[in-house]
Structures are given as structure tokens and as C-alpha cells.
Amino acid sequence: MCECSDLTPSLLILSLWDSMGVLIGISDVAIAILMGLIVIPALFAFTAYVVDQKGWSRKTASVTIGLLVFAFGVPATLSQGVLSNLLIMGRDILGLMDFVASNFLLPVSGLLLVVFLGWVWSTGKAVAEIKKGSPRFYWGRVWSFLIRYIMPIAILYIFIAGITS
């Protein structure tokens, strides 16, 4: 029996494809459609943000974001074929991207979010916004305490555990 840490994104994808057998053609189309439904609106929103907040032209924003998607997408795709033998820090490209996203990007963005909510914007303003959408939110003080004191420590623990394992 293998450890969960031994499983790579590549192994997960390949084992899912192998187990689907005849349905693989249908599932490929379904996955492509679902990914498009998820990714394309996010790219539109990011492009609109860059245009509105940073003052870029729509063409410059679209080309730059498209090139970034291409720059990250092609190596990840090729890591399952032509670049499958290329290892960086003992991982294939897709595995390295998974490691960086899981162990650095997610914890750091979570930490930045709780620090912003707890100390910069203030939990009082955040609770007021939550109550606008959910007037029966009674856990404001507990939530504020968790956001300001407990969550930063927990996220730092997760971050340190991720990079030291």
C-alpha cells in the first residue's frame, strides 16, 4: 500500500483515465466543457480587473494573460509526454506545480486573507458585511477571534508542515 504523499497528480489523472475504460471519450469532452465553464469566466474577470484597476488596454491585458496561461499550461501538458522524464526537485512539472500551489500559494494566500480581514480591514467591518447578506449571523465575536488569532497560527502551522515534509 502506498502513502498518500507518493501519489502524484500524474498518477491520479492516469489512474482515473484507466478506470473509466469506454467512457473516456465522453468524459474527456465533459471535463473539457466543465474546465472551460470554470476557467474562461475567471480569465474574463481577471482581464476586467487588470483593465479597470491597473489601466491596461484590453488588448494588452488579454495578450499578457493569454501568454501567462500558455506559459504555465504547455509545460504542464508536456510533462505527461515529451517532458515526462524531466524532473525538477525530484518532481515532474505537473507534480512541481501541485507542490508549489498546495504548499506555498494556498497557505500564503490564506494567511494574507486572514491578516487582511483581521487586522487591516477589521473584523467589525467584515461582520457587518456578513450580516447584510445573512442577518442571523450570531457568531461575530467568535468568528472575529478565530480570524485574528487562531487562523493565522493554524495556517502558519500548515505552511511550515507543508514545506518541511
Beta fraction: under 5%
Helix content: over 70%
What oligomeric state do these chains adopt?
A: single chain
Q: Which geometry do the CA atoms define?
A: extended
What's the number of helices?
6
Secondary structure category? mainly alpha
Order of helices and strands: HHHHHH
The averaged pLDDT comes out at 84
Distance between the termini: 20 Å
DSSP summary, beta strand count = 0
The low-confidence runs, each spanning 5 or more residues with pLDDT under 50, are: none
The Rg value, from CA coordinates, equals 21 Å
For the record, the count of structural domains works out to 2
Characterize the main sheet.
none
Description:
- The chain has 165 residues and is an all-alpha fold.
- The protein has helices at 9-20, 24-54, 58-78, 93-120, 123-133, 140-164.
- The model has no long low-confidence stretch (mean pLDDT 84).
Short précis:
By secondary structure, this protein is mainly α. The chain has helices at 9-20, 24-54, 58-78, 93-120, 123-133, 140-164.
Features:
single chain, mainly alpha, extended
Topology:
Blueprint: H1 9-20, H2 24-54, H3 58-78, H4 93-120, H5 123-133, H6 140-164
Helix pairs in contact: 2-3, 4-6
